[in-house]
Amino acid sequence: MKIIDLSVTISEEIKEPLPTTIIYEDHKEGAKKMGGKLFEGLTDVFIEDNGPAGELLTVTSHCGTHVDAPYHYFPTCEGKPSRTIDQMPLDWFFHDGVVLDFTDKPDGYMFEPEDLIEKLAAINYTLKPFDIVLIRCDADKRIHNDDFVRIHVGASAKATHWLIDQGIKVMGTDGWGWDIPLHIQAEDYRNNPRQGIIWQAHYVGIEKEYCQIEKLANLEALPPFGFKVACFPAKIKGASAGWTRAVAIIE
């Protein structure tokens, strides 16, 4: 069995609008601070003054590789309260994976159902319910660049509907987001203000329940199909998303 890491490293170096901060506490500091809290004020009892190391993170639930829950998209889904990440069925997150290669498309390209059909035909694969569909554009290779949020391909509302209609419950991308880049959405709206421009793929979640994985990595290391994806989200109470250590498993 071969396991391939599909996750980015949570770090302060990722260039995104809501950055992460990490305060590192080494073993010497841990002896004085964390050690004192854990051991009733005892700070001089550790071997060579090396206590427990630790880190304090300030993060959003959407930092790093993460799974968006239906609650992220809208308060309701299919006419009912949207489910949060801790309410999602675990069996959604361990299924056969499929990689669709969009590295031939320019930064910011919005793919439609016709693109998905073409890509599936190119690898001679027919989707089945619960497949986990992964969109590759290699944006993860530029995750520390200032233009990271501007370079990924994104799904249209119609493409997202189409995937769900094939029985897909979980879909993902190695880009910053599932929709096209934010600046393109904003420009389109300014040029022609109307509903359906901003966050169009996400808002599919109003009508149909699904989850999406954002900021995947290393999709180039995978075959088009013939592997399992495990992407169980962290169980955060009432949350709109949960971090995942997504991996591919090849027997």
TrEMBL record:
Superkingdom of this entry's organism?
A: Bacteria
Q: Name one Pfam family in it.
A: Cyclase
Q: Which is an annotated GO molecular function term of this record?
A: arylformamidase activity
Task: Kindly list the biological process annotations in GO that this record carries.
Answer: L-tryptophan catabolic process to kynurenine
| Gene3D superfamilies on file | Putative cyclase
InterPro entries, per the entry: KFase/CYL, KFase_sf
The protein's name in its UniProt record = Cyclase family protein
Provide the species name.
Flavobacterium sufflavum
Q: What is the lineage of its organism?
A: Bacteria, Pseudomonadati, Bacteroidota, Flavobacteriia, Flavobacteriales
